[in-house]
From TrEMBL:
Stored InterPro entries: Leu-rich_rpt, LRR-containing, LRR_dom_sf
Protein name per its UniProtKB record: Uncharacterized protein
Ranges of Basic and acidic residues composition bias in the record: 1-16, 170-180
Family matches, as SMART domains: LRR_RI
Region listing for Disordered, in residue ranges: 1-26, 147-188
Species of origin: Salpingoeca rosetta (strain ATCC 50818 / BSB-021)
Compositional bias annotation for Polar residues: 149-169
Pfam family, one: LRR_6
Length: 188
């Protein structure tokens, strides 16, 4: 199940684990994700057609926040919902090592949630060979998020200026969290 590329030094070897249709399930995915948190050799993992569901997807999202070796994760047809898609997207803010994540074959809503949670500045390859609806949902969510951030905060320079102004203002006029929430909600 595990293979290494030939013709590379021991240090440069990439390791792949193919667990295609092996009935991993949510509990198996959680165990595997726990082991991979501190993985230093496995670079590619294929879990195609294993019903890991949201429990497994969230476990992999948690793992990705610590793992710095995995470059490809294939979660095609793994029975995850938007909960799992959003968790994976959010995890990629911390993980910059993963270069390719396959999530096609789950629901269109999962693809949309992944696209909406993925940080705007995070580029990742997400192949959609057999899932045109998922690809459209993912791309629409990414576009909407970028437009929302741009219209709300302006460009990167404006976001930085807004943040600096907010930080300076809060130092000059300290407020409780309750006062800030009341202001944000428009409560007198």
């Amino acid at each position: 199940m595990e293979k290494q590329e030939r013709g590379t030094s021991r240090r440069e070897r990439r390791s792949t684990s193919d667990l295609l249709r092996t009935s991993v399930g949510p509990d198996g995915a959680k165990g595997l994700a726990e082991v991979l948190k501190h993985n230093t050799t496995l670079s590619e993992l294929n879990l195609i057609d294993n019903a890991i569901g949201d429990e497994g997807a969230v476990a992999f999202a948690n793992m990705l926040q610590l793992n710095s070796t995995l470059t490809t994760l294939d979660l095609w047809m793994t029975s995850m919902t938007p909960v799992g898609g959003a968790a994976l997207g959010a995890a990629l803010d911390q993980n910059r090592t993963l270069k390719q994540l396959w999530i096609e074959g789950n629901s269109t809503a999962t693809a949309r949630a992944f696209g909406a949670a993925l940080p705007v500045d995070r580029e990742i390859s997400t192949p959609w060979y057999n899932d045109d609806e998922g690809e459209v949902a993912f791309n629409e969510a990414r576009k909407e998020k970028k437009e929302l951030l741009s219209s709300t905060y302006g460009g990167p320079e404006q976001r930085q200026t807004t943040f600096l102004h907010s930080t300076q203002q809060s130092r000059e006029h300290p407020r409780t969290a309750r006062e800030q929430c009341d202001d944000d909600a428009g409560t007198p």
